[in-house]
Amino acid sequence: MLSAVLALSPESLVLGSRATVPARASANMGVGLLYSTTTGNTETVAGYLSAEIGVDAVDIADAEDLASFDGLIIGAPTWHTGADSERSGTAWDDYLYGDLTSADLKGKKVAIFGLGDQAGYGDNFCDAMDELKSCFEKQGAEVIGAWSADGYDHTESKSEAGGTFVGLACDEDNQPDQSEERVKAWVAQLKSEGMPL
């Protein structure tokens, strides 16, 4: 069995192909973990998620065919603060208004995580999560994984309504010691909300 898993091509892992994946190895192949990063903080949190769910994290610039996944966990930083669109300053900006617009994600569960800096950019904390949510919902995705804003020290966020973020907000600049525990709790929440993990 192990030799069959080791013989898998990177393409079959990235695309979540079930045709070449043995049944025991395919348990988490239905979920894509996608991110893009500017300073490395989003990649760090994607790494925590990868370790927790057993799925390799892939930069959106290298991903193909998101519709082939049963569920998606996606993450981005907020770089262009105050912007109405293209808020991440990463490859997500091109993807959201390019390839994503032709994707059929009807019925797919999507969970969003975002990175921000509460102290330096407290007026725009994790704003890019809201943009991801809007764009993926336009393609038919069901966004899950809303996260309480309790324990954060920011002023404002386009990704927050009624004390709840649209997804998991992390701050590797000011609260790096809380990210791993937040990830563990969030993954448990995603499972309870039907993410096929």
Q: How are the SSEs placed, and which strands pair?
A:
Layout: H1 2-6, H2 10-15, E1 31-35, H3 41-53, E2 57-59, E3 71-77, H4 91-96, E4 109-115, H5 128-138, E5 142-144, E6 147-148, E7 160-161, E8 164-165, E9 168-170, H6 179-192
Parallel strand pairs: 1-2, 1-3, 3-4, 4-5, 4-9
Antiparallel strand pairs: 6-8, 7-8
Helix pairs in contact: 3-6
Supply database-style keywords.
197 residues; alpha/beta; Rossmann fold; six-stranded parallel sheet; three-stranded antiparallel sheet; 6 helices; 28% helix; globular; disordered N terminus
3D architecture notes:
The chain is of the alpha/beta class and 197 residues long. The protein has helices at 2-6, 10-15, 41-53, 91-96, 128-138, 179-192, and strands at 31-35, 57-59, 71-77, 109-115, 142-144, 147-148, 160-161, 164-165, 168-170. Strands 1, 2, 3, 4, 5 and 9 form a 6-stranded parallel beta sheet that branches. It has a 3-stranded antiparallel beta sheet with strand order 6-8-7, with no helix packed on it. Helix 3 crosses helix 6. The longest helix is centred in the C-terminal third of the chain and has 14 residues, at 179-192. Mean pLDDT is 84; it is low at 1-29.
